[in-house]
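FW: tagging you since you asked about this chain on Friday. Here's the raw sequence from the shared folder, copied in full. Didn't touch anything.
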Amino acid sequence: MISESFTFKHKGNLDIFVYKWLPNENIEVKGVVQIAHGMGETASRYESFATFLTDNGFVVYANDHLGHGKTAGQIEKLGDLGEDGFNSMVEDMHGLNEIIKAENVGSPIFLLGHSMGSFLTQRYICLYGNELNGVILTGTCGRRGIIIDIGRIIAKVEIKRIGRCAKSILLNKLMFGRNNNSFNQSRTAFDWLSRDNKEIDEFVDDPYCGSIFTAGFFYDFLGGLKGIESMAEIKNVPKNLPIYIFAGDKDPIGKNGVGVLRLVKTYNKQGIKDLVYKIYKDGRHEMLHETNKEEVFMDVVKWINMHI
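HL: got it, structure written out here
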């Protein structure tokens, strides 16, 4: 695998950092996979997955979102995305996609979004779905209803109390504090991510992972979640866009599979013609970092190959 990196400009003139992984010269390129990572992590965590993809003939791009990783730059800036962070991240993903198209003329492009990245991707395909050859959602969920409205009210009060740019321990606890409840004898606060202790330890030890985010981020993020639940928006997803959804049945973000099936049902009702999903037994939130990740990798590549 050949590893490169570059930056491009965000609308506020901030540099967005991008990882680019390419197949070795003896491997024929079949297409491109763009990755949108989750909240409180960095795109660098997808290098193992990228290695598998490049070995199978795919170029891989993954940017660090606003307030994350090398885009944030300094540790103390993690979790602060500025105004309208949700939609800004979506537009950055589209900006990177424009670069990808220019660098890989004629190649099929697939967008994979994990967790927060999956919700950004749900919005992305309402706006730019016609520009993609396929979409993969993981660590995701469907409609949440009134809980989003309640969360936004709390976030608005929290902004008045501590300010938009202050990190909110309260909102972080409300969003993630119960995620370990289903797992007995948890070693860390992040055991809900994976059954693989090595992956968990690497996450915990990474200073760019697991940060607490600002009150302003939570307010904007919850607003973004409310937006992607709008049927008026969902109707804009192209009916012929292939979609693959996968998750673990012990993922608290996906409501142990129930929320994932809710999303599947929503897309089916909207007439999406090529939609498949897979739920892995005992899998937790990060199926790309799970104990059976090789199986997951193979399933993803198999699906992509069917849509080239």
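FW: The CA atoms of residues 36 and 113 lie 5 Å apart.
HL: agreed, and The radius of gyration is 18 Å.
FW: great, closing this out.
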